[in-house]
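Sample entry follows:

_____
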Amino acid sequence: MSSTHGPRPLRWVKSTYSGGEGGQCIEWAPEHAAATGDFLVRDSKDPNGPHLTLTREGFTGLVEFAKRHG
């Protein structure tokens, strides 16, 4: 028996390192990362625009950069 439902839409979460004024906000899809190992990152101001696909190492580097330069 197969399901007639398509893939579930991604749940995007705003980064805790995003700017509080709403101008510099990025979002990521944690469930997608847990399921696939691909870390998706996008600009929250353009939810229908492109996104980056990062490895775990690339995502860790992005977080470390945000911590240092946040």
Notes: The radius of gyration is 14 Å.
